[in-house]
Write a structure and sequence with these properties.
The structure holds two protein chains of two kinds. By secondary structure, chain A is an alpha/beta fold. Chain A contains twelve helices and nine strands. Chain A has one domain: TIM Barrel (Alpha-Beta Barrel), CATH 3.20.20.70. Chain A has helices spanning about 5-15, 30-40, 65-75, 80-90, 105-110, 110-120, 140-145, 165-170, 190-205, 220-225, 235-240, 245-260; strands at about 20-25, 50, 100, 125-130, 150, 155, 175-180, 210, 230-235. Chain B has two domains: about 20-60 and about 100-210, Rossmann fold; about 65-95 and about 215-405, Rossmann fold, CATH 3.40.50. The chains are: A alpha/beta, B alpha/beta. The interface of A and B includes residues 153 and 178 of A. The complex binds pyridoxal-5'-phosphate. Pyridoxal-5'-phosphate binds next to helix 5, helix 11 and helix 15 of chain B.
Chain lengths: ~260, ~400
């Protein structure tokens, strides 16, 4: 049986469309608002939902996502409540894939087997854990694959040709190419620089490749999506939430970005 | 490396950077190729006599090694039990053991052609040591320091600036050492091509815990021959005592003795206001549980949901919610024992040392000394304790004055 991620990318391919992947922090600024936003994402045109799992020490994130995590934690967000958000979505949407993105310690603390069983039952489709490189696959990647969850990997400009096969091994769902060396929210890469990197990944793997980091406008979403299988926007959406925009305003912004990506 | 099958405690870590289940390489993909390259370069340097010769020369003429092994006669008499020696690493250039490691890493950075050095610092001692060696070699130096620590360690901030370093106050999180480490990692991910991250303790992803330990092991190696010189050939210490922040001065003293079963090994964590459910301490081994932070698995102060707690200590240099992974392993295997001393106990030991030995210790080794004052009276006169006097207290006099209710004016 195709997973939700496979089914979604297959459908997009059949329609000749690029994927729009959105990232928000679970529980930011509070559980109720975050829940409303999550439930509105599919209608805004989001093809894959990435949900950030708050962590006190997000070493790969810039100030925008750091602050989002702190807001969520201050509002009482826990791993359990993040799974609650997924359950709430699954009650109304059984098609849009959900990927949890974050750091290993909250999962480690809960216990890998227990977490995987709960995540699967809640309707999570994939995991993207920033501080688990392929060298640590026995920790969570292999158990996650065995539990039927996709393990999505980041490829970066420092991932050279010799290393790329290692990064792609045991990964599934899609590959997330981080277009710059840096933290989330940093300056964007140019489509011209990204295209050969995506070609490099696609030559080494059959998985769809989406590109993220630094995309802030519908035009940038279109330009980057055009040279890949899709694009990811995170910090720009989180900034709107941080600015206190209403749920409707946040979703309108997401819709504009999705239309940008889909126009590619 | 199971606890029951150990023939040697000195062979770790394994190829995956593990000490038992601790350690590892929990970093983002951007950094992974860098730490693999660092490991290759360090392995090559380790076996290069020219690298060792350069280290030896600088250790001798720039740092002032070997540091003395000093018999603390009046403290010994005062406590009325074991014979107490102090390893005087506070006499090193820049006033602490930190420079032992910094020299090694900067020489490695030069071999690797890196031109920009970044570091995190808590008390400022590692930052000062890094700024110092960068000045010595004309390298750009950026030091990340929690905003809270910038305030409580003002003299060291000024020292770093005098030495030409840029000090970046870190306001993310709650502005202490762990946040400084986060921001240093963020800088490294951003400036991967020209930047070398000089970590100040036996933490971080492999190969840092092993590399920093190796550079600090000069401490224990010197103690071996110095004690034999003073107490007779073959005489080993009976007990080693050192303070634990991340654990680098302690690993440096302990490691050369791990396979000598007659040597008891004790690490002293910062007990802050007491090790209990308020978590106003930094005793990760006594009061934490295993988790993953800053590239390795180790004991961490964390809540039930895996969120890292801040901890508390009078000593900025011990104010870290984790501990080096090799200590976590030595703790679980039982080869070393880990205890704690509270702020109040450390302050009392600090004052005792000033008056009995004419040595103003840093607050970090004052924790080790506090434990010595607890165990020495009950030990026989022929029992030799070596404690690591890993830093001098000049940087701490303002903090101590405040706690003693004395107002200092500049
Ligand atoms: C004098 C001194 N001792 C100890 C420490 C704690 O570090 P470690 O446990 O790595 O030796 C510091 C840290 O700043 C220090 O300055």
């Amino acid at each position: 049986m195709a997973t939700r991620i496979e089914a979604r990318f297959a459908a997009l391919k059949a329609e000749g469309r690029k994927a729009f992947v959105s990232y928000i922090m679970a529980g930011d600024p509070d559980f109720a608002t975050s829940r409303e936003i999550v439930l509105g994402l599919p209608a805004a045109g989001v093809d894959v939902i990435e949900l950030g799992v708050p962590f006190t020490d997000p070493m790969a994130d810039g100030p925008t996502i750091q602050a989002a995590g702190q807001r969520a934690l201050a509002a009482g967000q826990t791993l359990e409540r993040t799974l609650d958000l997924v359950r709430a979505l699954r009650a109304v949407d059984d098609a849009t894939p959900v990927v949890l993105m974050g750091y290993y310690n909250p999962i480690h603390s809960r216990g890998v087997d227990r977490f995987l069983a709960e995540a699967k039952a809640a309707g999570v489709d994939g995991l993207l854990i920033v501080d688990l490189p392929p060298e640590e696959d026995s920790e969570l990647c292999l158990p996650a694959l065995a539990a039927g969850l996709d393990f999505i990997r980041l490829a970066t400009p420092t991932t050279d040709d010799a290393r790329l096969p290692k990064v792609l091994s045991n990964s599934s769902g899609f590959v997330y190419y981080v277009s710059i060396t840096g933290i989330t929210g940093a300056a964007a890469a140019q489509a011209g620089d990204v295209a050969p990197e995506v070609a490099r990944i696609k030559a080494a793997s059959d998985l769809p490749a989406v590109v993220g980091f630094g995309i802030r406008t519908p035009e940038a979403a279109r330009d980057i999506a055009a040279v890949a299988d899709g694009c990811v926007v995170g910090s720009a959406i989180v900034s709107e939430i941080a600015a206190g925009r209403s749920v409707a305003e946040v979703l309108a912004y997401v819709k504009a970005l999705a239309e940008g990506a889909h126009s590619a | 490396m199971d606890g029951d099958h150990i023939n040697s405690y000195m062979t770790g870590p394994d190829e995956s950077g593990r000490f038992g289940s601790f350690g590892g390489r929990f970093v983002s993909e951007t950094l992974m190729p860098l730490i693999l390259e660092l490991e290759r370069q360090y392995e090559a340097a380790k076996h290069d006599p020219a690298f060792a010769a350069e280290m030896d020369d600088l250790w001798k003429h720039y740092v002032g090694r070997p540091s003395p092994l000093y018999f603390a006669e009046r403290l010994t008499a005062h406590l009325g039990g074991a014979k107490i020696y102090m390893k005087r690493d506070e006499l090193n250039h820049t006033g602490a053991h930190k420079i032992n490691n910094v020299l090694g890493q900067i020489l490695l950075a030069r071999r690797m052609g890196k031109t920009r050095i970044i570091a995190e610092t808590g008390a400022g001692q590692h930052g000062v040591a890094t700024a110092t060696v960068c000045a010595r070699f004309g390298l750009q130096c950026v030091v990340y320091m929690g905003a809270h620590d910038v305030e409580r360690q003002a003299p060291n901030v000024f020292r770093m600036k005098l030495l030409g370093a840029e000090v970046v106050p870190v306001t993310s999180g709650r502005g202490t050492l762990k946040d400084a480490m986060n921001d240093a990692m963020r800088d490294w991910v951003t400036n991967v091509r020209d930047t070398f991250y000089c970590i100040g303790t036996v933490a971080g992803p492999h190969p840092y815990p092993a590399m920093v330990r190796d550079f600090q092991s000069i401490i224990g190696q010197e103690v071996r021959w110095q004690l034999a010189e003073q107490e007779g050939a073959g005489r080993l210490p009976d007990t080693l005592v050192a303070a634990i922040g991340g654990g680098s001065n302690a690993m440096g003293l302990f490691h050369p003795f791990l396979d000598d079963p007659s040597v008891a090994i004790i690490g002293v964590e910062a007990g802050g206001k007491g090790v209990d459910s308020r978590v106003e301490h930094c005793a990760s081994l006594s009061g934490g549980r295993p988790g993953v932070l800053h590239g390795n698995r180790t004991y961490l102060l964390q809540d039930g949901d895996g969120q890292i707690l801040e901890g508390f200590s009078i000593s900025a240099g011990l104010d870290y919610p984790g501990v080096g992974p090799e200590h976590a392993w030595l703790h679980d295997t039982g080869r070393a024992r880990y205890v704690y001393a509270t702020d109040a106990e450390a302050l009392a030991a600090f004052q005792l040392c000033c008056r009995l030995e004419g040595i103003i210790p840093a607050l970090e080794p004052s924790h080790a000394l506090a434990h010595v004052t607890k165990i020495a009276p009950d030990l026989p006169a022929d029992h030799i304790i070596v404690m690591n006097m890993c830093g001098r207290g000049d940087k701490d006099i303002f903090t101590v004055a405040r706690h003693l209710g004395v107002e200092l004016t500049g």
